[in-house]
Amino acid sequence: MTDTSNVPNGKRISELTPNAVLNDADILPIAAPADDTYTTGKGSISNLRRQLNFENAFDSIAAGLAATVNNQIFHVWDNADKIRVTEFININGVASPIFLPDGVNKKFYLTPQAVVLLSKYVSTNEYPTLDNGRKILGAMGDSEGGTVICFDDRGGAHTGGVTNDTSEIISDRYVEEVKADKSGRPIYKVFSTGHTIFGLNQLPAVPPAVFHLNLPSLYYADGVTENPAAEPIRTLLRLDLNNFNMGLYKYSLACASDGDSASGRVAAEWLYDWAMRRSMTNRNGSGNPEGSYDRHWRVPNFCMSYMIVKKEIPVAMRDEIVAWFTDLGAVLISDFDGYSVKTNNHSYWCAAAVYACYVITGVESFKTFALTIYDQAMARIESNGTITSEMGRSVRILYYHSFASDPLVMMCELAIQKGEDLYNRDPRLFKLLKTTMHGAYDSVWFSSNAGVSYVMEPITSGGFYPFVLLRYPALNEGWLTIDDPRWGSQFFMGQNGGSTQLAKLWVK
């Protein structure tokens, strides 16, 4: 017979009378890990509910480790909206992610906040027909009620101004008249501005205009650890923007390098289409800066492409494009005013974008804004060539020194095209460039020079290197070569050597 002397009421739990109704104040026995054994205590259903709803999740991996002991599991928010958590286990003070059965993807859970967002789908009669004739069937909002994504009656997904399905577009409020060939491809368009573009059936179609973006952060809440689930989402939402950006610099560089006027015409028509629609000029109303970052990363490419193919652009179209860059410069400054951190590489990229707008428009206030940030950047460069505001990046310190150098050199190169000189405005720039170039060659040296013990993530791309290698070869003590395939960035006129191609055009 089983001994029940230590069992309450002389009965096991399975033998107790069931409660018809449970209450959040009811108590459950809970066994928690302690060293190599378990300690039994009590816990309320209310506390269990909070745990199951992930109300006890942490903002960072470090916070989760600090609050748990060996073999305890904890969850970390993936983003500020708190719609998803990733699961970790504390193994002797080290956070080990728990993987799904496929052994590749980390285990995660959707939280009740995700249900709240999904509940913001609305009925059809509350949404109007889009300008392209499509009917919105539903939408999902962010935590502040702003629309993140909506779905139309033809399978299109519209995300922050991006239309990822452009089939069967039946109307366009910017176009007065369209003439199509037998296959349905347009031969010419008459825009509402009065400009007519001919031969469109012989040109690559311009990607749909993008007005603003709501993107998830690339990092977890700690701001350092990358969230692997974010990049596929970002890639989808930025599809049209990336297609425009990379296509634009491809056609522009082909025009400049090979004298390919046909490619120059494509770039010109693309620029005009987006300029006429004032693409990328809407402020992001959700308070999420990620879309603003994409604006300041891409605008310099737009400006440099315009500079390269300007001779291929009909005079009547240029005023519209210049007016667009004037609007973009104003929006970029407005973006900067809303940044919570104004001392890191994002400030430099914003400055480079505004300076690029100045080079084209001649708006002096753009120049003043950009140079103020440039001078502040110089003040953060230490005697060893490191940037004080980028030293909290762990294994990515070297990467962010390289990434921060790109917009600073971009401003210098744009200044030369304007007949001005920024390279020699402050000698501290050369300390940064030399240190970063040496680090791209020898990351162990960089760690030692910077006084940190991290094993640095190697440099796999960068836009500034070929410009400095050609213009200031004495800074390179045999470390790097001009034709290294790493020298390219989609934010600096191209990947796979695209930046080298532009450097060879501009550095004479």
What topology does this entry show?
Layout: E1 27-34, E2 37-44, H1 45-52, H2 61-66, E3 73-77, E4 84-91, E5 94-97, E6 108-110, H3 112-118, E7 136-141, E8 147-152, E9 157-159, E10 162-163, E11 175-180, E12 186-191, E13 196-198, H4 230-237, H5 239-258, H6 261-276, H7 290-309, H8 315-337, H9 345-361, H10 364-379, H11 397-417, H12 428-441, H13 443-450, H14 465-471, H15 498-506
Antiparallel strand pairs: 1-2, 3-4, 4-5, 4-6, 7-8, 8-9, 9-10, 11-12, 12-13
Helix pairs in contact: 4-5, 5-6, 5-7, 5-15, 6-7, 6-8, 7-8, 7-9, 8-9, 9-10, 9-11, 11-12, 12-13, 14-15
Plain-language structure description:
It is globular and about 95 Å long. The protein has 508 residues and is α+β, with helices and mostly antiparallel strands. The N and C termini lie far apart (97 Å). Strands 3, 4, 5 and 6 form a four-stranded antiparallel sheet that branches. The model is unreliable at 118-128, 142-148 and 159-171 (pLDDT under 50). It has helices spanning 45-52, 61-66, 112-118, 230-237, 239-258, 261-276, 290-309, 315-337, 345-361, 364-379, 397-417, 428-441, 443-450, 465-471, 498-506, and strands at 27-34, 37-44, 73-77, 84-91, 94-97, 108-110, 136-141, 147-152, 157-159, 162-163, 175-180, 186-191, 196-198.
Q: What pattern of helices and strands is seen along the backbone?
A: EEHHEEEEHEEEEEEEHHHHHHHHHHHH
Count all strands and give the number. 13
Helix content: 25-40%
Mean pLDDT: 81
- Count of helix runs: 15
Shape: globular
Strand content: 5-15%
Structural class: alpha+beta
Q: C-alpha Rg, in Å?
A: 28 Å
Question: Unreliable stretches, pLDDT < 50, 5 or more residues?
Answer: 118-128, 142-148, 159-171
